[in-house]
Design goal:
This protein is mainly α. It has a domain of about 80 residues. It has four helices and no strands. The radius of gyration is 19 Å and the shape is elongated.
């Protein structure tokens, strides 16, 4: 079970990660803009641009999912069950919570 000090640290961490994710989403949205066919770049450069767009779209979707998970867990930090693995019911290591606060299972159950 987490102490009040640890819960406050986790809350601050989650808020920072939410802000960072929102900023990252704005950037990725710009990077996923369509590659205009009338743009006067060469064939290879156009292929690179299309490939980069696909990579950035995948990053956008992953970041959006992580942001939603962070927002969900932000509401649960004060619950008595926060920090307890949803699968096995054992405490999640505080260090794991600091690394991935959006994950609700312990290392053992995540594999």
């Amino acid at each position: 079970m987490l102490t009040d000090k640890q819960k406050n640290e986790v809350k601050e961490l989650i808020q920072r990660r939410i802000t960072d994710s929102e900023n990252e989403l704005q950037l990725l949205k710009q990077l996923t803009a369509a590659v205009a066919p009338d743009n006067s770049i060469g064939r290879i450069s156009r292929m690179d641009a299309i490939n980069n767009k696909s990579v950035n779209e995948a990053a956008y979707h992953k970041t959006r999912k992580r942001l939603q998970q962070l927002k969900n867990v932000q509401e649960e930090v004060d619950n008595s069950t926060f920090g307890t693995c949803l699968r096995c019911g054992k405490p999640i290591a505080y260090e794991r919570i600091l690394i991935m606060p959006e994950k609700r299972v312990c290392v053992h159950c995540s594999t």
